[in-house]
Automatic annotation (TrEMBL), chains A, B:
<dbReference type="GO" id="GO:0004073">
    <property type="term" value="F:aspartate-semialdehyde dehydrogenase activity"/>
</dbReference>
<feature type="domain" description="Semialdehyde dehydrogenase NAD-binding">
    <location>
        <begin position="6"/>
        <end position="118"/>
    </location>
</feature>
<dbReference type="Pfam" id="PF01118">
    <property type="entry name" value="Semialdhyde_dh"/>
</dbReference>
<dbReference type="GO" id="GO:0051287">
    <property type="term" value="F:NAD binding"/>
</dbReference>
<dbReference type="GO" id="GO:0046983">
    <property type="term" value="F:protein dimerization activity"/>
</dbReference>
<dbReference type="InterPro" id="IPR036291">
    <property type="entry name" value="NAD(P)-bd_dom_sf"/>
</dbReference>
<dbReference type="InterPro" id="IPR012280">
    <property type="entry name" value="Semialdhyde_DH_dimer_dom"/>
</dbReference>
<keyword id="KW-0560">Oxidoreductase</keyword>
<dbReference type="InterPro" id="IPR000534">
    <property type="entry name" value="Semialdehyde_DH_NAD-bd"/>
</dbReference>
<dbReference type="Pfam" id="PF02774">
    <property type="entry name" value="Semialdhyde_dhC"/>
</dbReference>
<comment type="similarity">
    <text>Belongs to the aspartate-semialdehyde dehydrogenase family.</text>
</comment>
<protein>
    <submittedName>
        <fullName>Aspartate-semialdehyde dehydrogenase</fullName>
        <ecNumber>1.2.1.11</ecNumber>
    </submittedName>
</protein>
<dbReference type="GO" id="GO:0008652">
    <property type="term" value="P:amino acid biosynthetic process"/>
</dbReference>
Length: 334, 334
């Protein structure tokens, strides 16, 4: 049993922050004192942890020297402002915001060895939901495929954008079902019963920030710096659960049976046979694994593997991976 | 002005059949007498055409020698039973069911010349919504790309499966919003706020019938019999409007500016610049064009073009294409 640690959760009132606190408790993470932090607007409320109410305080006035480990789940701007201060105070940081480009991305199932070379205190990144899903599903396949190129269509749940986006999908849906005029608020247009082919801002070449992030994170996680990868992100009218249609080009012919065996041997993968298929609602949501289904060769390409992945974007796609990463980190601290 | 023809619409009471009748009227198709036909259960009702009520009669007892042209929009089984009888009676057939494998697929914007070699009466196929969207968007690019491979994720609206599927999405959504228990009827599971990664039956290799159809139709329409193409179909909780995330691998580097110009010159394409993007609801639905957006090179592949297409699956994706095909056909009859 590891020694209990004083830790902080920044962004404790957001949906990922809430899931973090819940998973720390579920996994009996060795917490001595838990400090919950948020921006000024959200500070003052309380969150339950291990049967006690913990008050949420302002991150601005927190002294990070009080803790050995902090999770940052309050967005890129907050991470950029406070993560380096935390580290200077001797606190290791696990960032969930994607805002710290210099922080190494780690998924325990894919590149746990990346921690070995780092000196405490560290600043590491728990990557985007898509990169986690790809890493969990594809890392076990590195032994049976010679991966050259990956093509991903990411179908993102509205909860990836936080609680306001969840409320907006519910509100828009209710307005439409009641035949009332729709006035979009959180999204700039109708998201209910619709698909939005762009998530966040795009650059001059037309690629989204999240799309580029998924590319660079996947290369690191899979240890394939030369990997060619293309991503299109689409916002779908789903509350929880991200899904990914994935095609992998291999340099050698794909042995589907070997792929299935490798997936079956992976602890964080639940493979669904082709007489069925996994869905976000009903399978992935609330679960701690990446569901993999529709495992097949390309229709006319024996060097291609097609897959469908779905995962809980708040748990395995965010909070759970961060806590699993923290579990690796505390071994290093011991 | 062409001579007016006696024509038949089989499956007149379905959503595509209804759209066919409406579009025949909108485009002032030269109809002398319109015969509306359906299965026994749907016969007896009436449909408005050109200001008059037209009674729907049973297809079983219809003599196809009365008409020169028949649209078949009543499913694969009906086409297989009656299309060859119609042709033997001297009636040309435009099949919308996908059930006649020997029938040549035609999209007027892509392969109108395919009609030249055929002798009247003909049996031709108006292909699936995905193949139509791909053909309309990619045919104009054959001059600026050397297309080697296409990767498609097709996000299909529930209306692709008819009126019952539309009602089921509405019903499931209402049940969920009212926190009532969900009992799936038309679909085998929850489709509201969910994604179903399989549409229809799959074969032993794991590919769906519709996925294989889209592949073979696209090769014919684009005149590229050797084209490598992979398709994944997903049922999305959208009522109307099919969308497609498409990656095209070219044998030569992609000139994005030339691609945009070629798309802008195509009559049935509406291109949306990258500061915006097209959506099924709000753009495509009710329109007669294929919307193309997010035109960009692959993130790290200058031989790749990424696109997002969206189109009205009932109009351009089905009924409108069939009527445009009929317009070509009557020139041949004149």
């Amino acid at each position: 049993m590891s020694q209990a640690l004083d830790i902080a959760v920044v962004g404790a009132t957001g949906s990922v922050g809430e899931a973090l606190v819940q998973i720390l408790e579920e996994l009996q993470f060795p917490v001595a004192t838990l400090h919950l932090l948020a921006s000024m607007e959200s500070a003052g409320s309380s969150v339950m942890f291990a049967g006690k109410k913990v008050r949420v305080r302002e991150v601005d006035s927190f002294d990070f020297a009080q803790v050995k480990l902090a999770f940052f789940a309050a967005g890129a701007a907050v991470s950029r402002t406070f993560a380096s201060k935390a580290r200077e105070a001797g606190c290791s940081v696990i960032d969930l915001s994607g805002g710290l480009e210099e922080a190494l991305s780690i998924v325990p199932e894919a590149n746990p060895e990346a921690l070995d070379g780092l000196k405490l205190p560290v600043v590491v990144s728990s990557p985007s939901s898509g990169a986690i899903a790809l890493a969990v599903a594809l890392a076990p396949l590195r032994g049976v495929l010679d991966i050259e190129r990956i093509q991903v269509m990411a179908c993102l749940a509205v909860s990836s954008q936080g609680r306001e986006a969840v409320n907006e999908l519910a509100r828009q849906t209710a307005e439409l079902l009641n035949a009332r005029p729709l006035e979009p608020r959180f999204f700039d247009r109708q998201v209910a019963f619709n698909l939005l082919a762009q998530v966040g801002a795009t650059d001059e070449q037309g690629h989204g920030t999240l799309e580029r992030r998924l590319v660079s994170e996947s290369r690191v996680l899979l240890g394939l710096p030369e990997l060619k990868i293309s991503v299109s992100c689409v916002q779908v009218p789903v509350f929880f659960g991200d899904s990914f249609s994935v095609s992998v080009q291999s340099r050698t012919p794909v042995d589907v049976q070997a792929v299935k065996l490798a997936l079956d041997g992976a602890a964080s993968v639940e493979r669904v046979e082709n007489d069925d298929y996994p869905t976000p609602v009903g399978d992935a949501v609330g679960q701690d694994v990446v569901y993999v289904g529709r495992v097949r060769q390309g229709i006319d390409a024996d060097h291609q593997l097609d897959l469908w992945l779905t995962t809980d974007n708040v748990r395995k796609g965010a909070a759970l991976n961060a806590v699993q990463l923290a579990q690796l980190l505390i071994k290093k601290m011991a």
